[in-house]
Design brief:
The chain is mainly α. The protein has 8 helices and no strands. It starts with a helix and ends with a helix.
Length: about 180
C-alpha cells in the first residue's frame, strides 16, 4: 500500500503526499523530538523534512527505500536545527523548558528528569543513532544510510551513547543521594 502512495506522490499527486504526511507525521515528530529534546525545534525539523521530501520526491529512484530516504532528510533537518539552535543560544540565555506535553506513566518524574538531563549531554549525532535504533527500531545498516556514515561508526556512536547515558544517570543518582543525605 505504501509503495503505491509513494509512487503517486512521486508523480505529483498532492493527496498521496498528504497521506504520507498523515502516515509518517507523528512518528517523524516523535523521532525529531527525541533527537532535539525540544518540541518547537522538532516541529520545525519535521516540517523542513516534509518540505524537502515534497521537493525531492520526484528524484527518488528506489521507492522501496522511501522510509530510509525520508529518515535521512529528517535526521539532516534535525542536525541543521541543532546547529541553528547552538548558534542562537550562544548569544541568548536559555530559560527552562516545560518538557514533553504528555508524561510517560511508566517513568517517575525524577527518572524522567534524570533521563532528560542525560540526553541533553549527548551530541545530536549520538542521540540520533540511539533514537533510530531503540525508538524507531531500525537496523544498524539502515541507520548508517540515514546518517550517511559507515556501519562501524553507527555501532561506535550507539555504544558511546549508551555508555554516556549510563554514566550520566549513575552520576545523577549519586548527586541526588548526596543531596538527600545533606538535607
Amino acid at each position: 500500500m505504501r509503495t503505491a502512495i509513494v509512487t503517486r506522490a512521486r508523480d505529483g499527486d498532492d493527496e498521496a503526499f498528504t497521506q504520507l504526511v498523515e502516515l509518517d507525521g507523528d512518528r517523524s515528530f516523535a523521532i525529531a523530538y527525541r533527537i532535539l529534546r525540544d518540541a518547537d525545534r522538532a516541529r520545525d525539523a519535521t516540517q523542513q523534512a516534509f518540505v524537502l521530501a515534497w521537493r525531492e520526491l520526484p528524484r527518488l529512484r528506489d521507492i522501496d527505500r522511501y522510509e530510509v530516504w525520508f529518515y535521512r532528510l529528517l535526521v539532516n533537518a534535525c542536525y541543521q536545527e541543532a546547529r541553528r539552535h547552538r548558534r542562537w543560544t550562544s548569544r541568548v540565555r536559555l530559560l527552562p523548558s516545560e518538557g514533553p506535553a504528555m508524561p510517560d506513566p511508566f517513568v517517575s518524574v525524577d527518572d524522567r528528569d534524570a533521563l532528560e538531563r542525560a540526553f541533553q549531554r549527548l551530541s545530536p549525532e549520538h542521540r540520533t543513532v540511539f533514537v533510530m535504533h531503540h525508538y524507531a527500531g531500525m537496523p544498524l545498516a539502515d541507520i548508517a544510510q540515514v546518517v550517511g556514515v559507515p556501519v562501524g561508526t553507527v555501532k561506535s556512536r550507539l555504544h558511546h551513547s549508551i555508555r554516556d547515558l549510563r554514566a550520566a544517570l549513575t552520576n545523577d543518582a549519586a548527586v541526588r543521594s548526596v543531596e538527600v543525605n545533606l538535607a
